[in-house]
Amino acid sequence: MVTLNVKEKNLFSGLFGGGALLENGDVYNDEKVLIMRGRKGLQTWTAVVEKPSGAMSGSISQAGRTFAQFGTCEPSQ
Hints:
- This protein is an all-beta fold.
- The chain has no helices and seven strands.
- The chain is globular and about 30 Å long.
- The two termini are 20 Å apart.
- 12% of the residues are buried.
């Protein structure tokens, strides 16, 4: 499982020790949308979060392979 941490603006996985999977990159942030991207070696990641609804989609890609995810971001407790 890969989790998008909006506050930290990165991806992480408990399966890999809970640390960030890929390095942070650029962030675009306005009142309606948050767009993030980063990389590690030849892998890249992107995530888009619609702020009013929390709807999100993201991907991790490298040549010939893509992992895509979508869902809803929940506010932290």
